[in-house]
Amino acid sequence: MVTSSVFGTIRANPRGDVPVVHPDSFVDPTAILCGKVIVHENVFIGPYAVIRADEVDMDGDMQPIVIGAHSNIQDGVVIHSKSGAAVTIGAHTSIAHRAIVHGPCTVGSRVFIGFNSVLFNCEVGDGCVVRHNAVVDGCTLPPGFYVPSTERIGPRTELSTIARVSVQASEFSEDVVRTNNWLVEGYRKLLQQS
């Protein structure tokens, strides 16, 4: 089943799971949501984003991809998962243009993931900032850490060498969330007028 609507293109996966999108969210008409995807309230999903929950584990089961309330998934972002593992994006979190989040993966609340960054098989704690073109792979990044642009954080990374999120970086993250929350409201009003 494929449905094109004010919530983008909604597709069932081969198992028959269909995305569930909160009616107070906005999904761009060019975005594709497939399978066991749950989108909470006031989420912005931008143009050409792909959120695809269609792989299963050895028993034919899968966990959902969950996007928390007031978060934003920007243009060209890809969210997918290996072998039915869960992907969870917390509340008030920004996943910026063309980032890739590949599960299993947990991203906390009030997190900023920068342009073209890649997250795989990892946990990113609440309040973290991962700047553009960075990679977080196979590790747990505790709350409040700042990953500079182009850095690679992995299981052998010594966390004591990583800076904590500054007030300025935190304010930037909050501003991105505010802006995208405004876009949800603005685009939904435009749809109501047409």
Automatic annotation (TrEMBL):
InterPro entries assigned: CA_gamma_LbH, Gamma-CA, Hexapep, Trimer_LpxA-like_sf
SUPFAM superfamilies: Trimeric LpxA-like enzymes (SSF51161)
Pfam families hit by this protein: Hexapep (PF00132)
Top-rank taxon, per record: Bacteria
PANTHER family for the chain: CARBON DIOXIDE CONCENTRATING MECHANISM PROTEIN CCMM (PTHR43360), CARBOXYSOME ASSEMBLY PROTEIN CCMM (PTHR43360:SF1)
Family: Belongs to the gamma-class carbonic anhydrase family.
Entry protein name: Carbonate dehydratase
Native source organism of the sequence: Oxalicibacterium flavum
